[in-house]
Every structure is written in structure tokens, then in C-alpha cells.
Design a protein that fits this description.
NDK-like_dom_sf, 5 helices, Nucleoside_diP_kinase, 20% strand, globular, Nucleoside diphosphate kinase homolog 5-like, nucleoside diphosphate kinase activity, alpha+beta, three-stranded antiparallel sheet
Length: 116
């Protein structure tokens, strides 16, 4: 009688996250994408879109009712954006570290030499 051998195949666990290049930064997309790649990410998918105010409102619905919501929707629907699905190990943590604080006051305090 032959014995069955269970084969183990290594699994690659890679995290993915969404990166959005906002309207005023689209002209710097090549530079931004180069930074993303140099940080060890792979760009899995890239799409240039122009969100309608309704789409932007739906996308940012978690912020509905906050003081900045209307301006955010207007800003994100004012022109094209580039949406990237990026991947690497620890993608979310690495992306958050690369981006820095989301609060503009904290960002200016923490990274005064970075441009907004």
C-alpha cells in the first residue's frame, strides 16, 4: 500500500490597499507612482477617473455631516483623479507611514518640510 503524501504549497500573503492621487496632484502622477514603486509596492491596477459629485459623496459617506464633507466632495469631483490598487507585505501600515498624518494640522507639525 502506498502512502499519500500531503504536499504543502507556500502561500504568498500580500496586502492590498487603495491609493488615490487627488485632482491637484494628477500632474505629478509619474513622480508619485515612482515613490510608490521605490517603497516596495506593486501597482496592481491603475485607473484615471473623474468622479461626479454623487460618486464622491457616496465614496466619502462616512464623513457625511462633518464640517468638511461638502468641500471634500467638491474638491474630489473637480477634476480627474488616479486610483491605484497597490500591494506589498504590510501594505496598509506601510502606506499610512508613507502618507503621514491625515489631519493637516498634525501633518504640518510632524512633517513641516512636506508640501500638502
Amino acid at each position: 500500500m502506498t502512502e499519500k503524501v500531503k504536499r504543502c504549497h507556500p502561500k504568498a500573503y500580500v496586502d492590498k490597499t487603495l491609493a488615490i492621487i487627488k485632482p491637484e496632484a494628477v500632474k505629478y502622477a509619474d513622480v508619485i507612482e515612482d515613490i510608490i514603486l521605490r517603497t516596495g509596492f506593486t501597482i496592481v491596477n491603475r485607473r484615471r477617473v473623474h468622479m461626479t459629485p454623487e460618486q464622491a459623496s457616496d465614496f466619502y459617506s462616512e464623513h457625511f455631516g462633518k464640517m468638511f464633507f461638502t468641500k471634500l466632495v467638491e474638491y474630489m469631483s473637480q477634476g480627474p483623479i488616479i486610483c491605484l490598487i497597490i500591494a506589498r507585505d504590510n501594505a496598509i501600515t506601510t502606506w499610512e507611514e508613507l502618507m503621514g498624518p491625515t489631519n493637516t494640522f498634525n501633518a504640518r507639525e510632524t512633517y513641516p518640510d512636506r508640501h500638502s
